[in-house]
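Why does this matter for the project? Reviewers at the last site visit asked to see concrete outputs rather than summary tables. In response, this paragraph embeds two records directly. Each consists of the residue sequence and, immediately after it, the corresponding structure tokens. Nothing has been edited or filtered.
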Amino acid sequence: MYDRLKKILPIVLIVIVAIFSVLYLFIGRQYGVEYQDTLYFPSSEEDTTVYSAKVGGQPASFTVQGDTVTYRWGDTVYGPYTIREDPTAAPVVEWEYPNLIGVEIREEDSILFRGGHTEDLFLFIREDGEPASDLFHVTYSVNGVERDADGNVVAPHQPSLKTLIRFSQLPEADAHRGSLMYWFFGLLIAGITALLIRFDDTLFRLHLSFRVRHPEDADPSDWELTSRVLSWLAFTVFSFGVFIAGLMIIS
């Protein structure tokens, strides 16, 4: 058993490193737009741009056509929303909120927001000078249903004002999955594991040389061999886990 694992595990480590290196290379080239820890991949045709993804096992997409944005999640459709810049909508409080960009957002005939926002979309001020209340809300769950402070049902996938404006500006695909740092750590752990397997007896006797005389005459006990195997398996699983974790990171 011991000798068999000593031969098999290095091959397993090589396979793990090879597979994840290919995955990191392939996935790292797929750039998209990050939204709620998911990458939306753009495709354009004439005057329409669609950002597509998978969210909760359902297809999701932002469709941008002219000044309208429509969000779909599964069979649920949000919008279409109309986003138009309007300098007259920005509140006249420039001494307190400088450089506000005036905008009006409609859902069909209803005005969702009219006012101004900062260039980084961090702050939204309504036309009357008050902050947009729907940007700062508290929700709670009752029987799995999200509700706001007034008891109204909150649509879990409804895009925010910030999201609508962001996608209306046709953001570039500049994010991808896969962290090179995690790939390096996974490779490093796999390499250390391979060294522990290759030089098991050498390391054992080196450790004994600080404690006993003539360590070259010592034979490892069954417990020592078992401990080695457990450590090899633990390091192999750890390396695999680090590779997997790195693929989940958006950078």
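We now turn to the second protein, recorded in exactly the same manner.
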Amino acid sequence: MSSHGHSGAELTRLPLSARISKQNGNCNASAVFGQREHIAVIALTPFVAITAIRWRSLSPGPVAILAGLCAGLAMSIKPYLALVAGLPIILAAIRHRSLRPLFTPEACAAAAVVIGYGAMVVIVFPAYLFTYAPMVTATYLPMRKGLAGLLPLPIVVITASIAFLRQVAPQGFKMGGDASPWLAAAIGGAASFVLQGRGWTYTAYALCMFAIAAPLLHVRTRTLPVSVRIGGFAGVVLIGFCLSLSERAFPPLERRIQALAKHPRLLTITDHVALGHPLVRQIDGTWVGSSCVQLLAAGAMLLQNSSQPTQAEQARLDSIIHFERRQLLADVRNGRPDVILVDTYLQGSVPFDWLAWANSDPELQTELSRYREVEDVGRVRIFVDQSSLER
């Protein structure tokens, strides 16, 4: 396996914040369908609707328990969305000056699902909680945008929601108005978006959906001025357009790979999930990796080169990088990929030699020596098992 490519020297020339902001500025994660986020927001919507029904002093009936179970599923899928479910019922508790809204059947059902899921993780997957999660906390969570890059979207969306709400239902903007639970859910979505810190559009789905729902549920088209109708429609279309923006980070690879191997076993060496997915489905291949990216290693290297870690911190970061290499080694050995795609950038913007990074492990270098580079397409180097080429 040849070892030419971009040097990682530029990595030390940019501070972590600059590199991350540059990467996020060019980030195309908006083109990645966030299935978890979509499913979680859909599952959470009945819970917010039940909260809105109780807000109006109505009884939702037994269906409230089902809504609570769905909300528990949503929070298990994406814990940040607990803010979306929590803020409306906290607002209800403040309004009634009572803790009873916190212990409704749906709230208890949601809590039961979350607690049960947490217990299952601890019992069945302790390695995730005690081994993998600390590595994620150390290397992945610090890779985030600054507040200046995160706050504009929530501010604009919430402001537009309130402005439109005042036009369609002025009374709905008051503390006791019927739209308050939906606005609270939207604010919870905004908080979730900011806390996640990535700025990716699919992390704003909860914010946008509930911000649209708050005024839309109060629209009376017969009494609505034409200008308000047009403005509201344009706003919804604009939000939908922004959430659907698609930007391709990698060149088209489907035909090139299919010409090299039919239904190949595929593996990537990169920190960008969009290199291997959804490509592996498009070529009707088989993914042989135990993870989709070497993102923990990328975060560790960024921290090493942008800060002054203590000796203990340096050792911890080195162990995370070593963990990623050993995992990659196991994937190559066990999966026997036909094709390996190697990226030449770190965090999408910093030239980096991922092949040299992998070859620094002697055992991994031995495994990768079975592969030969057949093509260099943009930022992607394509390597194929030499035995496959000889067949």
